[in-house]
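the two lines:
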Amino acid sequence: MQTRLILSLALALAATPASAFVAFVSNEKGNSISVVDLDKMQTVATIPTGQRPRGIAVSHDGKSVYVALGDDDTVQVFDTKTYKLIGELPSGPDPEQFAVDPTGKFMFVANENDAMVTAIDIDKREALGTIGVGVEPEGMAVSPDSKTLVCTSETTSMAHFIDTQSHAVTASVLVPPRPRFSAYKADSSEVWISSEVGGQVTILDPVSHAIKARVKFEIPGLRAEQIQPVGINLTRDGKLAFVDLGPADRVAVVDGVTHEVLKYLLVGQRVWHGAFTPDEKYLVVANGVSNDVSVIDVAARKVIKSIQVGELPWGVDFAPN
Amino acid sequence: MALATLIGIASLGSAGAADTMEIKVGYLHLQPSKTRLSLMDVPADNDGVAGAELATEDNETTGRFIGQNYTLVTKTLRAGDDVAAAVKELADQGAAILMTDDDADGVLAAAEAAKARGLTLLNAGALDDSLREKDCRANVIHVAPTRSMLADALAQYLMTKKWRKWLLIVGSHEHDKLFGDALRHAATRFGAKIVEEREFKDTGGARRTDSGLVEIQRQMPVLTQSAPDYDVLVAADESEVFAGYLPYRTWDARPVAGSAGLVPTTWDASFDQWGAVQLQSRFTRRFHRFMTPLDMQAWTAARMVGEAASRANSADPAKLVAFLKGPDFAVAAFKGQKLTLRDWNLQLRQPILLFDGRNTVSVSPQEGYLHQFSQLDTLGYDRPETQCKLD
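prediction for all of em together
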């Protein structure tokens, strides 16, 4: 343990700071963002935010980090280098998750208490309108061609497919209870949706909206009710998916093609959302109850490190340097 | 812009107005008694109804994407009103399913009248174990927990604290005695010892009046003095006569649980786990008051109807009930896991929350209380003990 620490310190000293991957972790109860250096494998800064930061994402140019503040009804924008607050986006009330479209121009925010989605022009910092969706919208994902937004609503238990141009809901698909998160495969062939209370992941065909597969989880020694899938991260080649199982304290490694569960990785308590380093070498997941993040070696499919962050870490994103 | 978008969605979602399904839920609401020891606990007139209204709006939001329309028709009853006539009225108005917060007698009367019309009743209020056991009915689904589930939830927690020796004080009214029975059963089931049992007789003048504080301060120590050594005072007082006056007034310095102090229930305005904050904020914003356990039970009942109608894609009463009783039914109700029905007596399985009046102390079942089928079945009478015969 100590050897490893010394080794990682030595590595950190050797690395040039510019090449270090830096994770931004939102701390829901800490009202802050922890900045985690993946070379040093430690938290190097804490940025104070407004109240109840949850959804977090770095802008496509890597210059800004957006964080949704549920109790302040806004999205704050911080500079990823200076950590200074540089602006706000009109998210509408109680923003939770949001998605930035692949063009980097538009943001779609789930307004959890109002059963709606707010569309924002990021450059103009203007709200373009709202879209009525089911009760307690949460999961948000934009298709790789930027044309479709998939929003899941938790109490309604639906995935809504929304045209990002017209803002019309083009289809609504019933999925198992409390869908939390949606993710597109990079080749647009599948949309993965986690159902927290349903305890499974539903894989939809984004064109026909038919259910292609269901991924179920079984962990010896754990009751089925404890297994509550939340965050999903798919590798760019679509071969692997990592599903965060909440109070099961595990991340499931799923074959992206056969949809079989390959392995369960033990992480911290109540694992919620995660993000890959831009080179996909590591996956970093936020553990809400143990106040840390777990670093997973993607190729080895092993947890290699836990790093202390702020109180109730919720989500993670990386700058694409 | 926003309005145009919303209209666009509405027309898309309904897929032609002719196809819209109408799902009407009839709610038999018993005007609540306002007798409470604490002013803070006095229920609003729409206690329960507000929960069902919010769930109906939630169902409606879901419904507009799949061409379903939900309405709640409420009929308020006063004690002694004709329940059967009220059921008939709701059935005549086209209710596909009924729910009620009436007491056990009201539930049985409503169930009988509903049966004649081919309708099923969701019991959102009555805690009586008898309704799930010897008096169970094939057309009654129980959303409210039983007294035995509440007592077992409390007992499991007290046992994890190793507070095994209980001083049990039971009120003199029927419901108090039933809760007393459930607590005694729980003590036996989980290995607690009732060192002594006392009765608090309601002689009419016990509740606090303008000058009552001094009286209570004298009364409660007398009630609790000379007890054998005990760890926790467990009170059964559903009638709100004395239990609320016990904390800080006992002869010995002991915690209070049951009907006061640490209370097992289904909801509290302070509850914030598992996304509950979302429901609490929607409720408070809509009704300008806190959400009560009865509101939550009614919300859950009305949401169960929405879940059945959307999953079965039907407004037909028989299909709704078939889905609710079928293997695919589950409802999410901010309890950290899906809630399902016990097929032997149609009781909703649910975790029970334990509150101290300000915060959540714990959620039962407690760790270590295992069950071969569902850990939730460690709360309340289990399948092997059941006296229920559904026909």
